[in-house]
């Protein structure tokens, strides 16, 4: 069964990519619009820094590294989950999710890989370019250890993003409606473009525990740069590394629970 899945997954991805690239001009114009949109967000941060020099003790290159890390982790994780799991609500409401359950294939794997969102290419291009500049500009001495931590933390943040989105989408299998939860997710996600220490203690706690999106941005980047991390302190590095795998296990358990509770189109 595992080998069957591994042979089919590349085919699903290839078919989806071909369908999305049918109108290449429109596709790349949309990616350019994404780059300009997120570029304007970063420009807003730059305006703040031009006025106040630092933000929560973070300099301009450090904030650029934070922003690019957050955007890259999100885009990689969301490409494997967001659009696919957002559409799960409609599949449940119309009853078409039932057809996935009778396929000799994992419903989750089919959803994710048959709808792999290459539309996040614009996010990735901007994030990688900005990250390259920030890595060269930040006042930090890189080493093999720090580079390894940076890459591992990025992978963990990507896994955490995908896990949280998967859990939100899977909730539709229980409640039918779950997309309103994405509004809460993105409300907190936008806060993680900024250092954790500029927020009140209550929000800091939420961003580390209930909605742990700070673990995809300021916690790993701050730990790398030696910034003081609220609440976690010296545990920040370890937590940033294990958060992704731990939340993946939680999301797997939640998916299985949700599919077990699913009663079909008839309710």
UniProtKB/TrEMBL annotation:
Instruction: Report if keyword Transmembrane helix is assigned.
Output: yes
PANTHER family, per the entry: INTEGRAL MEMBRANE TRANSPORT PROTEIN, SLR0610 PROTEIN-RELATED
Membrane spanning residue stretches: 28-52, 64-83, 108-136, 142-175, 196-215, 235-255
Q: Which Pfam families match?
A: ABC2_membrane_6 (PF06182)
Q: Does the keyword Transmembrane helix apply?
A: yes
- Protein name, please? ABC-2 family transporter protein
Question: Per its UniProt entry, which superkingdom is the organism in?
Answer: Bacteria
Q: Which InterPro entries match?
A: ABC-2_transporter-like
Q: Where is the signal peptide?
A: none
Protein keywords: Membrane, Transmembrane, Transmembrane helix
């Amino acid at each position: 069964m595992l080998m069957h899945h591994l042979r089919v997954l590349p085919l699903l991805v290839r078919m989806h990519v071909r369908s999305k690239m049918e109108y290449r001009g429109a596709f790349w114009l949309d990616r350019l619009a994404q780059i300009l949109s997120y570029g304007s967000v970063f420009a807003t941060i730059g305006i703040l820094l031009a006025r106040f020099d630092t933000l929560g003790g973070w300099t301009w290159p450090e904030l650029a590294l934070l922003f690019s890390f957050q955007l890259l982790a999100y885009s990689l994780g969301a490409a494997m989950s967001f659009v696919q799991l957002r559409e799960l609500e409609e599949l449940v409401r119309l009853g078409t999710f039932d057809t996935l359950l009778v396929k000799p294939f994992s419903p989750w794997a089919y959803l994710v890989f048959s709808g792999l969102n290459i539309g996040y290419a614009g996010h990735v291009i901007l994030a990688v370019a900005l990250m390259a500049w920030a890595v060269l500009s930040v006042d930090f001495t890189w080493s093999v250890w720090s580079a390894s931590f940076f890459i591992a933390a990025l992978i963990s943040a990507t896994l955490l993003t995908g896990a949280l989105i998967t859990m939100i989408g899977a909730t539709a299998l229980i409640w039918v409606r779950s997309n309103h939860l994405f509004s809460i997710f993105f409300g907190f996600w936008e806060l993680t473009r900024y250092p954790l220490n500029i927020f009140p203690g209550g929000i800091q706690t939420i961003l580390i525990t209930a909605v742990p999106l700070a673990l995809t941005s300021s916690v790993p980047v701050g730990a790398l740069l030696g910034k003081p991390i609220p609440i976690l302190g010296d545990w920040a590095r370890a937590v940033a590394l294990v958060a992704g795998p731990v939340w993946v296990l939680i999301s797997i358990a939640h998916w299985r629970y949700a599919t077990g509770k699913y009663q079909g189109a008839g309710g």
